[in-house]
Amino acid sequence: QIMVVGEGREFLTALVVPDFEALQAYAKEHGLAYGQIDEMLAQEPIRKLFEDVFRQYSRHAAAPEKIRDFRFITEPFTVDNGMMTPTMKLRRRAIEKHYADLIDEMYAAVV
């Protein structure tokens, strides 16, 4: 799952909930050792994998549509946690409020 953030801001960023099963298989295949999911997500090869995906997308996007930074989150967006509606739409305000610190960090980090 990905939620792009950027309304009223100078550029776009994203919150990413990766497919953990696929990432664990990737980590195993590439010999990456980790204990917890957070440790796996903090490894440079995992981050680079997603940077490459965003870079490839951004190559074909107009300047205002380029995603300049992202952060991993480990909790999927669900109806139960209030991050999605019953019709499976993201509750953007709830997500932005819950992850405000991460969002602010992305905008502080990218100059």
Report on the architecture of this protein:
The chain has 111 residues and is α+β, with helices and mostly antiparallel strands. Helix content is 43%, strand content 14%. The chain contains five helices and three strands, in the order ββαααβαα. A three-stranded mixed β-sheet has the order 1-2-3, with helices on both faces. The longest helix is centred in the middle third of the chain and has 16 residues, at 44-59.
**What is the H/E string?**
EEHHHEHH
Low-confidence stretches: none
Measure the end-to-end span. Answer: 26 Å
Mean pLDDT: 94
Continuous helix count: 5
- Major sheet, described briefly? 3 strands, mixed
Rg on CA atoms, Å? 15 Å
Q: Assign an overall shape.
A: globular
Structural class: alpha+beta
Total beta strands:
3
Q: Level of helix content? A: 40-55%
SS strand fraction: 5-15%
How are the strands of the largest sheet arranged? 1-2-3
List the helices and strands and how they pair.
Blueprint: E1 2-5, E2 12-16, H1 20-29, H2 37-41, H3 44-59, E3 67-72, H4 92-98, H5 100-109
Parallel strand pairs: 2-3
Antiparallel strand pairs: 1-2
What is the compact description of this entry?
The chain is of the alpha+beta class. It contains 5 helices and 3 strands, in the order ββαααβαα.
Structure keywords:
single chain, three-stranded mixed sheet, 111 residues, alpha+beta, 5 helices
